[in-house]
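Please, structure for the following, as tokens.
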Amino acid sequence: MHCSSPFSANITLSRGSPNFSIQSNEKLGIDGVLLTMYDSRLNLSRQVAEDAREYFGPKVFSSVVPRNVRLAEAPSFGKPIILYDVASVGAQAYMNVAKELIERTAQGDDGGN
């Protein structure tokens, strides 16, 4: 059984190595890590993505969800992004992540577990 749940990870960059502090149920595994609110123009976004990929390896999805105005607007209208604006960059990014997750699951890939 697969479940996805957003959680907050405190990321501290010290001397080039990330310190991820995660509080979770010890019986749960991580099948995938999704980078959201990504902005390739920002050094911090690129550094966090690089550190997450180094730390979590193949668990990090190739697809990233960028900062997107339409994603921010959708909840105000009480709709998921797929119904609010399926053509938006944010909706397309989430659909790419869904495809990637389906491919991983079909191949029996557990994201590096």
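The longest helix spans residues 89-106. Strands lie at 10-14, 17-21, 33-38, 60-66.
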